[in-house]
Amino acid sequence: MRRRRGLSLFNILAVLLLVVACASAAVIALAATAPEILPEGLTNLLPLGDSGDGTDSDAMDVPTLISQAAVPTTTPTATATATIAVNLEPTWTPDTAQGATAAPTNTRRPTSEPSATPILPSRTATPTDTPTPTNTPTFTPTPPPNPTNTRSPQEFTKTLNSPRFDEQRFYDVNCNWMGFAGQVLDINGNPLTNRSFRVHVWEDRSGGIDARAVVGDAPIYGAAAWEQYVREAPLVWTYFVQLEDGSGNALSQVYQVTTRASCRENLIYFDFVQNHTN
User: Fold this and answer.
1) Is there a contact between 228 and 259 (Cβ–Cβ < 8 Å)?
2) How far is CA 25 from the centre of its chain?
3) End-to-end CA distance of the chain
4) Do the Cβ atoms of 278 and 251 come closer than 8 Å?
5) Which of 13, 91, 170, 260 can bridge 265 by disulfide, Cβ–Cβ 3.0-4.6 Å?
6) What is the C-alpha to C-alpha distance for residues 212 and 226, in angstroms, rounded to an integer?
């Protein structure tokens, strides 16, 4: 509908322009050929020197230009120009005066949505039977072998428990006595009574005791026993003891003994045992 109205208006304007052009051409042609018929007010439009009455106003002659206007034989047809009307869709403009809040736009969804990974419960270990504790064998130490006498260059050695300190109970001496006593034993630990022995006891000082006790003269201590008195009271002192045969030959090494100053330790037992037989 709008396009048709535009074409009609355009056609009307084209016709009006054509009419005006034709009128203008006719006036110009008339003025050129017959100026005398023009109204008096239009004579001023003629060229200089031509007053309209055939007389010259200036001294010089101005040639008369005869113009011939070409009158079109055909009336030009108005060409319709196509006008393209673009109809735009009205857009909604938010009314900011009313404080309206713009509607949120849709957020673009991710191309790939993460898949939910199921969380499986951890595997619970199956309880196993606790082994019943067994009796742990206790370590029983092996008793050491009975000590035996190491073969000595001498025939006799002291027993392993010599010297032994004890109280003198055989005499009524209270604490007014200190001495040595003991036995001579064979290789089996029995009193050796079929041989003659002496025990040499001495001090390593000038004027000290230096005595030999005969084995077998002190039966109160056992068979093949001996005794040697050394001092009237117990005292810490150093003595030397050695077994000899009846002729004074050494049958054992020399042993050093340190006595004690105690009334309960004033009797020192010292035994000799046969180490080997010839």
Assistant:
1) no
2) 109
3) 163
4) no
5) 260
6) 10
| CATH 2.60.40, the chain: domain bounds | 156-274
User: Encoding tokens for residue 143?
Assistant: 């008793």
**Single pTM value for the model:** 0.47
Q: For 36-91, write each residue's pLDDT tens digit.
A: 666 665 555 555 444 444 444 444 444 554 444 444 455 545 454 545 555 556 56
Nearest-5° Cα angle at 205, 202 to 209: 35
Q: Are strands 210-214 and 255-258 parallel, antiparallel or unpaired?
A: unpaired
CATH of span 156-274:
2.60.40
Sheet holding 210-214, edge to edge: 210-214, 197-202, 238-245, 255-258
Q: Which amino acid is at 249?
A: N
Amino acid identity, residue 159? T
